[in-house]
Amino acid sequence: MRRSASRKTGQPNSTPSLNSSPADLFRSASSKATTKELERIDALYYSYANGSSAMIDPEGIEALCSDMEVDHTDVRILMLAWKMKAEKQGYFSLEEWRRGLKALRADTVNKLKKALPELEKEVKRPTNFVDFYSYAFRYCLTEEKQKSIDIESICELLDLVLGSQFREQVDFFVEYLKTQNDYKVINNDQWMGFYRFCNEISFPDFSNYDPELAWPLILDNFVEWMLAKQS
């Protein structure tokens, strides 16, 4: 049976006071709108979350990508993880989801899809990109206390993250990594060093490359390999 719509005597009146200032009314309306937005963000999260873990897992991310009509290997999905500050590869927690979607002002799949181009522009700003590039490496550390990533995965990650900016450097470095036998894994210093290398070193003549400077040894070896290849 539905409750009576009549108000009991003495119950506080929910109608805004006539003495409320415009600022008070605005704050109240803004607070209600924020609450509603958060409710929609949460509802969207649970529509993709795994029922037992209460997290969005790889299957949920694939479903989200399908609904956004974006391939799950698209670099913008990694950018989305960066925006959420997601800690575990292939998983989004509710807190991470809220952080990312509130920042993107997206509470529906359609809004999230429309936010991706702007997110891409945001990531590609130089100060943001360094952070994103560093994050991409950390995000791929899937085991506890893991500090390095295997060569095959690094080659895929380089192509995904740096391929559009430094196509030639990435292609040759990937070729080098796949043919050399000295390195089985890449650590964070080597990863970050290659990004600095792409930004600072004249390619492919290496005219300003000084092996006496503090470059990771793998880059000295890469330059030697390239010069031998050219000659």
Overall spatial form: elongated
Give the helices and strands as they follow along the chain. Answer: HHHHHHEHHEHH
Helix % is: 55-70%
What class would the helix/strand composition place it in? mainly alpha
CATH topology of the largest domain: Recoverin, domain 1
Low-confidence stretches: 1-15
CATH architecture descriptor name of the largest domain = Orthogonal Bundle
| End-to-end separation | 89 Å
Mean pLDDT level: 90
Strand order, largest beta sheet: 1-2
**According to CATH, what is the class of the largest domain?**
Mainly Alpha
**Number of DSSP strands?**
2
Main sheet summary: 2 strands, antiparallel
Fold blueprint:
Elements: H1 22-48, H2 58-68, H3 75-84, H4 94-104, H5 109-123, H6 126-139, E1 148-150, H7 151-162, H8 167-179, E2 185-187, H9 188-200, H10 217-230
Antiparallel strand pairs: 1-2
Helix pairs in contact: 1-4, 3-4, 3-5, 6-9, 7-8
